[in-house]
Design goal:
Blueprint: E1 11-13, E2 16-18, H1 20-28, E3 33-40, E4 48-54, H2 61-70, E5 85-88, H3 102-115, H4 124-138, H5 156-170, H6 176-181, H7 185-201
Parallel strand pairs: 4-5
Antiparallel strand pairs: 1-2, 3-4
């Protein structure tokens, strides 16, 4: 499948020249991607946003970043501005062609911006761990300290999967109400650390 929205040539992101159309081509070559469109935002600082729709039941944004890195399209950390932020187009209605027009993608980006807090990167190992877990479960990129699990599309069944991951990876038995009552990332991390401290005290 060819990209449904094709950017007009190279763009400059914080002084660095990049080719959104080439990123689209590579993303479409990944077996888990059915559709892809890479756009550059307006204003300053400009950034790249990669809209992707899964071809099956799951979509790992981490694997897609690795896929771009293998194609030499994701640069080193000194040029991190050229690494696109991923938006997984998995909600109802995104399968329609209208969702993949320029107007449709603009609406999707505006909707994501409304649901997200201003970005503050995770701080500390527990916040970073939970951000990675949320990314895997929600297919939402660039999760920050003040993002809310349920505002990003989480629900009770996915919260159960967070509990399972905490038990599997960290050996922590976290009561369900802890996750429901602390759905903002930094609050949830604090709550998980309190559970950890309580268990180590016994």
């Amino acid at each position: 499948m060819t990209p449904l929205v094709r950017p007009s040539g190279a763009v400059e992101i914080q002084g660095l020249r990049t080719e959104p159309a080439e990123m689209e081509r590579v993303l479409l070559g990944h077996p888990s991607v059915a559709r892809a469109a890479v756009r550059a935002t307006g204003g300053e600082p400009r950034r790249l946003v990669a809209f992707v729709a899964p071809s099956g039941d799951s979509l790992s944004l981490r694997q897609l970043r690795e896929h771009l890195a293998d194609a030499k399209l994701v640069p080193d950390s000194e040029q991190a501005a050229r690494v696109p932020e991923f938006v997984a187009m998995t909600a109802r209605g995104h399968e329609s062609d209208a969702a993949w027009t320029a107007d449709g993608l603009a609406r999707a980006l505006e909707d994501l911006a409304r649901r997200r807090a201003p970005h503050t990167p995770p701080a500390g190992p527990t916040e970073q761990y939970l951000a990675d877990v949320w990314e895997d479960l929600l297919a939402v990129d660039a999760i920050g300290q003040d993002d809310d699990f349920f505002s990003l599309g989480g629900h009770s069944l996915l919260a159960v999967r967070v509990r399972i991951r905490l038990q599997r990876d960290l050996g922590l038995e976290v009561p369900p109400e802890v996750l429901f009552e602390n759905s903002v990332l930094r609050h949830q991390a604090d709550a998980v650390d309190r559970v950890r401290a309580g268990e180590s005290a016994h």
